[in-house]
């Protein structure tokens, strides 16, 4: 069985408060993009355990891999005795704010449920997914959604209007844990207008969405990494309606109404920043598994 695990961006990301358990209460607008990892799953009758192979030597291929963990969670719960082979071809940049690992896990939950005929609903898969990571339930749901709590309380929203999404991952690493550790939730001066963005999504108003796009984690990450603001300016000068950081970064994305401007910006950024991963795509609607990879 061949699956695609799509990358997400946050059109809006607000942190409301730090909770006593150390997590933060969030309000985020999640959007799937057409960038994806490929996953092939094969049940091995009479086989034993899980075998994972990936094209990236620097990510773990055992229990530490979220795709592996997703498979073992379901297979243990349901006492599956057959083996499973997972081939994971990573394309989504790792540790980039694009939820690549979470999306791999979500795709494996969906695939294992089918291959071994476990009969779980999407909701039941989402409930199990949160044990693997806060973004996993959203990656099972897909599309456009409001995510609250630590990200697991989900409200589906209508599809965002068509546009071009330019993703640019600078050649730097940021640790999600450190970003949240450095955040002072009670000192956030300007919270994003998440409710206004929901209205704009309901009205299909791309400019209204763009004018409210904001990520409060950027105020933690960007001052230490000037390249983030540099990429954003590059995109906005090239005609993006807006450009902000996704998740805890460092990936920056721009929303373009005009696909030619987006293509031109992609080419220019690839030339100017050879160390960056620059990828042009579009919103991935829920249940749309046609080739949405973009260029
Ligand atoms: P988020 O947006 O949820 O913060 P991310 O894009 O920052 O996610 P990931 O790419 O999901 O981060 O992975 C971060 C870490 O998880 C890496 O250090 C990696 O070694 C580990 N990891 C485990 N499983 C996977 C996987 N299937 N793909 C990528 N990384 C994985």
Description:
It is a single chain. With 295 residues, the chain is an alpha+beta fold. The protein folds into two domains: 2-157, Ribosomal Protein S5, domain 2 (2-Layer Sandwich), CATH 3.30.230.10; 164-281, GHMP kinase, C-terminal domain (Alpha-Beta Plaits), CATH 3.30.70. The chain is built from ten helices and eleven strands. It has helices at 66-77, 100-115, 122-129, 136-141, 176-182, 194-202, 206-212, 218-221, 227-237, 259-272, and strands at 2-18, 24-44, 50-54, 83-89, 144-149, 153-157, 164-169, 214-215, 242-245, 252-256, 277-281. α1 links the parallel β3 and β4 (83-89). Residues 291-295 have low confidence and may be disordered. The structure holds adenosine-5'-triphosphate.
Low-confidence stretches: 291-295
- Give every kind of bound small molecule, once each: adenosine-5'-triphosphate
Name of the CATH class of the largest domain: Alpha Beta
Biggest pleated sheet: 7 strands, mixed
Structural class assignment: alpha+beta
Order of helices and strands: EEEHEHHHEEEHHHEHHEEHE
Gross morphology is globular
Number of helices: 10
Q: Work out the count of structural domains.
A: 2
What do we call the CATH topology of the largest domain?
Answer: Ribosomal Protein S5, domain 2
Task: Please give the share of residues in helix.
Answer: 25-40%
Radius of gyration: 19 Å
Q: How many angstroms does the end-to-end distance come to?
A: 25 Å
Mean pLDDT: 95
